[in-house]
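G., before I forget:
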Amino acid sequence: MRAYSPSNWKHTGVVLLCLLPGLGLIILLIGTVISMAVAQSVGYFNFSGPSEFSLIYWQKQLASPFLHRSVLYSAKISLLSSLISVGLAYMFAMWLRRPFPGSTMLGGLLKAPMMVPGLVAAFLLLNVIAFHGFVNEFLLWTNIISKPLRMQNDSFGTAVIFLQVWKQMPFALLVLIGPVQSIHNEIFDAARDLGASAWTRFRKIVLPLTLTAMQAALILVFIRAAGDFSFQVIVGPREVSSMAQYMYTVQRLYGEWNEAAVVAVVLMTMSLTGALLLAAVSQFLVTGRRR
Amino acid sequence: MRRSKLNILLVAILVIVLVLWLAVPFGMALLWSLVDPSKAWSYPDLLPQKLSFVRWTEMWETTNLALAMGHSYTLAPIVAVCTLILAAPTAYAFARLDFHGKTAAQMLSLLPLVVPEFVTALFFTSLLYKLGIYAKFPAIVLGHIVLFLPYAIRILTVSFAQVRQDLIDAARDLGASPWARFSSAFLPVLKPGILAALIIVFIQSIEEFAISFVVGSPDFTTIPTILYSYLGDNFIRPNAAVVSLILVVPNIILLLIFERLLKSNGAVTVGGKG
């Protein structure tokens, strides 16, 4: 450690001044928002009645079957969405690894969903899968089915997962394509010469070399999917709520700020631990297997 | 040889799939927005019986769509410019200054992306109520700025890192003033990054739903919140089609401009010899 001289202090001052408007604002606002949620969940900052420490809101919500169901449901949707998105993104990244005629256009088309706002995507999907949507009309017209199928608001959440993958896969691809492309061809050639199959090459070369990017993609998609509100409200199952939807209902319909805060804290914990767990498991599977 | 043929086949299949999943849905949205109210489009008609712009004019005249568009298109440029200005110093520090805890600081700057948007929106509202702030427009501006700062910081960090130290030193050695140094060594390299950050934040702000919806409800509307109102419990398909197109078409045009800007500037900007 060097002793702090005046020039060092000056340097620190400059750094702090630089960080203040951007990073400072982020930490101030998001930090306050998180603290607000935590404080309200244990009875502080009440809008009506006395503000004092109380665990009653936690007791109420932790006993609620609705919360349990929405935690499990949101975790399921996020897990499936992130696995499918990252899996598909790997497929496309491997395919686009070396340029070929049409690969630029293909890359552009694959990224197109990023330009389409989520709500618009949900509406477009509705048109396609609705009772009188494109798919049903087509299947009726070709006499494959005699009655329209019910695909909107399916109880598993397939439509929500489809929309999540549609929207998130391009992000995962964006994260993965660079690292995948930077793997040298010689490594693949060497592996091929040694008789490694395509699957082995993927498992033993691509996965370990792109592990960090894969973890980033998994975390990104998981967190985005865990906090979903609009896809769920529009095409999700009617009998279960996503966590964001449940939190909003608790606050808006019942006016329960403190209980909504409990749901918020549970949602943040779930999305963070879920994402980190996913990253840890993928690390174990990729590096553990090699040894 | 076989691989290239396989590729052509795969590309062809994929293009068909993408046409099916981009062109068909958008085509249907366009058709739905043009369905004349006097003749409903229902089974077994494969195509609408009568097309007109009635829905478009009706939407414009009878709903508060115009107001919502006004809100969205004043919010977005203000948010974009403010975010850029606030992000620049942090990006400069990340790219060109050495300090302890830089990695941690960079991780912390991603905080708005890690907290679920609806949690941010709801407890930001709660914070505003506690502080007694009921002005919705500035509140949403602030919310959007914080939400999109990570994108701007990231883009500008890359740009600042590309500025060449020898150009800055040369400008200083030649006695250039701070402004001259900035405009000759920094600005040309930063320009694509600045444009990219502005456009990305602008688009994100136009389509942001959580904060606009939670903070703005019930009376402050933006284009996405209007769209949501036609998609939720009172689902009005032709109206939703009109709003969807209004929301998405300008975005696509902006992104095309953005791609062009990046391409035309890409090669020249790094400047100097290789």
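Confidence is low (pLDDT under 50) at residues 266-274 of chain B. The two ends of chain B are 37 Å apart (CA to CA).

More on Monday.
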